[in-house]
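Amino acid chain:
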Amino acid sequence: MSSTERAEEVIADIPGWRDASVRFLPGGLTNRNFLVETASRRGVLKFDAAPRPEPLNPRIEEAAVQKQGVQAGIANEVLYVDEITYLVEYVDGEVWTPRHLDDDANLLLLAEALRKLHAMPLTGRVFDARAAARVYRAELEGTDASIAKEHVEIIESMRRPKNICCCHNDLVVANILTTPELRFLDWEYAGDNDPFFDLATVVEHHDLSNRQAEFLLDAYFEGDGMRWRGQLAEQQRLYKSLLWLWAAAKPRLFDT
C-alpha cells in the first residue's frame, strides 16, 4: 500500500473527513505530510507507524502546546489528534526560506513572535538536549563514533538553563509561515527550554552574520540585546553539536 493510500484510510476514519481528497505534500524532514480537502475546509495530515519516542513529543502533548500557540496567535489550529494521527488546519501563506532572514523587517516580525512564544505557559515537559544527544549517538555506534562523542561531550558540558520558558526548539525557516501574521509550524519538539535556544537555532542554522544576530537580539530585547550576546553564542554552540548528531542519526531514526 502506498503512503497516499494509507493516508486516505487514515483520513476516512476521522469524523467529518471521510470524503476528503488527499494529496502528498513534499518537504517534510521527519514526517510525511498530506493536504486533505473537503468542499469547505483544508487540513494537513501526518500519521505515524507507532507513538513517537523522545526527544519528539507524543502527538497529544504536541497538540497541547500547539493549542496554546493558537491562543497566542502564532500557530495553526489543531483539528484532530490521537497517539499516531495529527491533523491541523491548512492556512494559505508564504513559508519562509533563508532569504526572508535578509530582511530586517522580517527579523522584527520574528522577534515579536518569539516574545509571544516565550510568554506562553510552561508546558511541564522540559526539552533535554543531553538526553536527545544520547539518543542520536546511540544510532551512530561505529559510524563517526569519535566525532559523535565530541559533540555529546560539548552538549554535556553546557550549563543547564536557569530560566526556562515555552520554546519551539525547531525554528528553522521551513517552520515559519507568513499568513500575513507570523506563525510557527511543526511543534513536535516544543517544550520548556532556555529561550536563547530558539534564537540560537535561527542564527546558527541559517548562518546569520554578526550584524543580523545582533539585530535580532536587539529586536527581541527591544534595544537591549548586546549584553546577551554571550548567552546566545553558548546556545549556538549547543545547537551546532545537536544538529550534527541529529543529521547523522536521521536516516536510522525517521522513516520518511
